[in-house]
Fold this sequence. Notes:
alpha+beta; Glucose Permease (Domain IIA); 10-stranded mixed sheet; 28% strand; globular
Amino acid sequence: MTHPWLTFGSPVRRPSYATQGWAQDRPARSDIHRGMDIRAAVGDPVYAIGDGVVQYARANYAGSDAGNWIGVLHEGDLLSRYLHLSKIFVAAGQQVRRGDLIGAAGMTGASSPHLHFDVYLPESRLAEYVQLFGTPASGFRKSDFGYKVPGEPLIPIDAYAQKVIDGARSQGILFYGQVKHSSSGTIIAVVGILALAGAGVYYVKTVQPRWFR
């Protein structure tokens, strides 16, 4: 049976590109970025990464760096957040499904136009995350919403800036679709990789354009 944290989709329309990841240094703030910044223009649609219930739908243009933001609670007590939105299309308590339109990207709060995405877990679920994906070198940061954990292993992003890749590798952070061996030696398999490989073989053999042959 597939773990619910291995079934999430992308919060933005593909193709998607992460300009900043969990491990990027922020010298001006003397810390690291603990989320993902995904390229998006003001008004671009933002989608729920999975089934869940909206816990937060907060409009706060001036009072918070986050601006307008949404938080969705998913199976396994995982909270996904979507920050700096220009519009919010859901309300607290509303049930959403994976791929539902929940907001529009923006630049509210302390932000240039992009989508900041981050993930939180309660302390009781951290061991489960570690078993699946490992522990980042910088550890997990506690906040009012729980413990913030890297989102890179959880959602499919098409591309990453090189600084995101380098920073994640230095932190020991996995990317979506990578396999983690648990302490018991069990392998968590992600079928999407095999499906993509099969689709590639089919494309080359059957439907590639004339110039490709």
